[in-house]
């Protein structure tokens, strides 16, 4: 490239930068989708939009309900121990599953088996694949219990309805 072409190239780049600066500085950009359109798209994907105050109140209610559940379970265990029926009851295990990016269904199934949520990790993995849940796994944190069936667990970790 000769000197003249290099100068014109530099001038063109400089002109483009100046035009972009003026455009961005003096012509405000729209925010994208309107709030209502954005809310509708999130709802269509299966999410629920909640104000932060409501979310905080719901979290408090959940923690209170969990405390009450623990009390009821403790009372029930105590009463069943007194009557001698404690041997026949199945203990319900609670597990907090964290699904990271790139996790496979077999990794998730193995974690659930180790935690006692599912009896057989391979069977659960086969269930996920058979019903094509492996295609729609969602990254996130999930609270699961051992009294849930495969379908319920699959719907929770895929955020399906």
What does this structure look like?
The chain crosses the membrane at residues 6-24. It comes from Falsibacillus albus. This is Endolytic transglycosylase MltG. Residues 55-82 form a coiled coil. Keywords: Coiled coil, Membrane, Transmembrane, Transmembrane helix. By secondary structure, the chain is mostly helical. It has a domain at 92-161: Endolytic murein transglycosylase (Dna Ligase, domain 1), CATH 3.30.1490.480. Helix content is 60%, strand content 7%. The protein is built from 6 helices and 2 strands, in the order αααβααβα. It has helices spanning 3-26, 35-44, 52-83, 105-115, 121-130, 150-158; strands at residues 94-99, 140-145. It has a two-stranded antiparallel ribbon. Helix 4 (105-115) runs antiparallel to helix 5. The chain starts with a helix and ends with a helix.
Which fold does the CATH topology of the domain at 92-161 refer to? Answer: Dna Ligase, domain 1
Beta strand count: 2
Top CATH class of the domain at 92-161: Alpha Beta
Strand order within the widest beta sheet: 1-2
Query: What is the overall number of helices?
Result: 6
CATH architecture title of the domain at 92-161: 2-Layer Sandwich
Judging from the principal axes of the Cα atoms, what is the shape? elongated
What is the CATH homologous superfamily assignment of the domain at 92-161?
A: Endolytic murein transglycosylase
Low-confidence stretches: none
Keywords: Coiled coil, Membrane, Transmembrane, Transmembrane helix
Organism: Falsibacillus albus
Coiled coil: 55-82
Transmembrane segments: 6-24
């Amino acid at each position: 490239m000769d000197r003249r072409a290099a100068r014109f190239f530099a001038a063109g780049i400089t002109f483009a930068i100046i035009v972009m600066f003026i455009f961005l500085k003096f012509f405000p950009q729209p925010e994208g989708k309107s709030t209502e359109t954005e809310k509708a798209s999130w709802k269509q994907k299966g999410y629920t939009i909640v104000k932060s105050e409501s979310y905080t109140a719901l979290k408090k209610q959940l923690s209170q309900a969990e405390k009450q559940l623990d009390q009821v379970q403790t009372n029930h265990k105590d009463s069943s121990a007194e009557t001698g029926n404690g041997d026949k009851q199945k203990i319900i295990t609670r597990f907090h599953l964290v699904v990271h990016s790139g996790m496979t269904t077999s990794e998730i199934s193995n974690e659930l088996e180790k935690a006692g949520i599912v009896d057989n990790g391979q069977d659960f993995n086969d269930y996920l694949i058979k019903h094509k849940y492996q295609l729609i796994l969602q990254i996130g944190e999930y609270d699961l219990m051992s009294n849930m069936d495969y379908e319920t667990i699959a719907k929770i970790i895929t955020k399906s309805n």
